[in-house]
Amino acid sequence: MSALNLIPLVRRMGPRDPHEAHRVASPLELFFDLVFVVAIASAAAELHHGLSAAHYEAILGFSLVFFAIWWAWMNYAWFASAYDCDDVVYRLLTFAIMAGSLLLAAGVPDLFDDGQSIAVVTGYAVMRLAMVALWLRVARGDTPHRTTAMTYAVGITVVQVLWIARLALHGDGVLYATFGLLVLAEVAVPVVAEQRGGATPFHPHHIAERYGLFTIIVLGEVILASVQAIQGVLAEPAAAGSNAGHGVLPAAEGGGGSGLTPGLVLLAVGGLLIVFSLWWLYFKRDHVDLIGQGRTMTWVYSYAHVLVFAAVAAVGAGLAAAVDVVQHDAVASSRAIAFALAVPVAVYALVLAALHAAADRDPRTAVPAVALSVAVLLVAALGLDMPLAVLLIGLAMAGAVAQHVVVAQRRLAGAAT
């Protein structure tokens, strides 16, 4: 018997069983996520540079790019949960979406600079039109959901044509207004399609795993961005020394290149506490029950995660900008960068707490997240030195994790008695 994974060229794209046992993310889906995080890393890098230079309009640019990345990822994730037939054509169309993501990533700097980017729009068009091809396959292979599939296909196509036409517009006011209108149109397509033709049969455990895995991958990007920033600092003294006598200022006169300082160590410790706490707070409960609370809660869970993912990526940009502040390579103040770090932490904590409170029907469960948000924002408002601010934010988050551990242990002790 051959050990080869034999994949048919084409098979009928019928629905997967939403109760299928042992359904997990496929290697293709993991590869898909890895490619998409490249686009996220590109957007976060531009946000980092904008924050360091006190060009706070970069926050808006990051938001625009991140919506496009998240929307394309989310649409594919839910589609694959319902219709992953794993034939050659399906894989090739998935590769097309991944290629569009890389093209979008290449155009991110232009979008931040000019507010428009042909590369970004082209990459987004490739991703979305590949989704149209997938939905047309569903329309042919899944007769009961044909209306749903055709509504998706037509809706995505119409909105995509409008995105391309938007390239002809100019002026910040017009661009932002049309962006908002097209975002509303994008969000409306799944709602209309699922109501008009019936809901697609997604797998709750599979979706929960997909969201969790993507959170981990974005956290990995945060760690990579932070380590690269610190590596750059550590490399500066050697680089400065090697340029001695060649018209280059030594590190002490150039505003950077101080190597591993106590401040940098405190910042690294605080950054690790932040990243570890982000992971712990996300996975402190199983998210399957959040999806299985009915259609409304499913929509809320799905769409609210744009804030979760964006907040994690923004934390990475904030930590990298904090390194610039410590090295005196930033125009922005310590207070501004502390807020750039504290705000996404607060958003992350509050969104997750709101989802948990809604699922539990108990608003009291959100109290620790509110306390954490207030604490980190107060730290930012104090205007402390950057290393101390990052460390205190990390300690506040570690305190939230400790509170959860204490509560969990009490519940376990109560259940045992």
From TrEMBL:
It comes from the Bacteria. Keywords: Membrane, Transmembrane, Transmembrane helix. The keyword Oxidoreductase does not apply. The chain crosses the membrane at residues 21-44, 56-76, 88-106, 118-138, 150-169, 175-193, 213-234, 263-282, 303-323, 335-358, 365-382, 388-407. Pfam families: LtrA. This is Low temperature requirement protein A. It comes from Pedococcus aerophilus.
